[in-house]
Recover the amino acids of this structure.
């Protein structure tokens, strides 16, 4: 397995012989609701579009996961598997092969990869977006991804995972508390899933953020602090923290079939 963090929530996952672009934001700014005064994220320089993408995987329909400028730049014949909300975004852009995946639903991709949607992050009072489990049907290795750290519902349905991609730091708003949950929430996921590796997402990197929301946000926790938290709790899971654009080889021990 190879994992490349493309900053923010964006990843290139190479698993089961497939190259999967996850929640890509690669070009242009990130703006919510066309209101840059509220929040605007910018890359110091655009990332090159990865070549030979077999599948686009979208966990949410929000702009930081289904990023319109990036999706407009990508080849719209690339197949997409997405949350039901994100599927509407790419369908409106004219993508030709879109598979919405609701909670508990599974799609077999290229006869080699099983993709399962689990309940993920709540977006407002009526919408819960997706977490994903990717299972290599040859090696039986599993990767679990939830970008905001809302693991409770998913962990009730998933026994183990070899690799977890999730926040390990809290992003906190005054009065509202954390809207991205790391720390103890990531620790709970590790205790339940017993992964060999966890990789942080959703914070850090080279992104430059401005606007009112950015001024209100507070980041709590650190990578080194989370490593110590794992050690203090007797967890053998290793934290991998790649730099943006760094392709990491993830060496996994044998998985149990099933």
């Amino acid at each position: 397995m190879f994992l490349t963090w493309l900053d923010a929530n964006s990843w290139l996952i190479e698993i089961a012989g497939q190259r999967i672009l996850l929640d890509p934001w690669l070009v242009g700014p990130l703006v919510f609701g066309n209101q840059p005064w509220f929040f605007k994220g910018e890359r110091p320089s655009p990332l090159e579009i990865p070549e030979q993408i077999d599948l686009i995987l979208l966990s949410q329909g929000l702009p930081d996961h289904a990023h319109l400028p990036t999706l407009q730049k990508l080849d719209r014949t690339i197949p997409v598997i997405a949350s039901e909300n994100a599927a509407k975004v790419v369908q409106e852009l004219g993508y030709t092969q879109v598979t919405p995946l609701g909670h508990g639903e599974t799609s077999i991709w290229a006869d080699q990869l099983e993709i399962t949607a689990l309940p993920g992050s709540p977006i407002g009072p009526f919408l819960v977006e997706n977490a994903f489990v990717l299972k290599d049907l040859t090696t039986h290795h599993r990767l679990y991804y939830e970008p905001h750290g809302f693991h409770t519902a998913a962990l009730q349905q998933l026994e183990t995972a070899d690799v977890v991609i999730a926040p390990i730091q809290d992003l906190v708003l005054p009065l509202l508390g954390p809207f991205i949950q790391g720390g103890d929430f990531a620790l709970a996921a590790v205790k339940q899933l017993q992964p060999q590796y966890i990789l942080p997402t959703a914070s850090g990197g080279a992104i430059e953020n401005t606007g009112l929301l950015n001024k209100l946000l507070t980041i709590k926790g650190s990578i080194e602090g989370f490593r110590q938290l794992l050690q203090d709790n007797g967890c053998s899971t290793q934290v991998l923290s790649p730099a943006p654009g760094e392709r990491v080889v993830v060496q996994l021990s044998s998985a149990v079939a099933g």
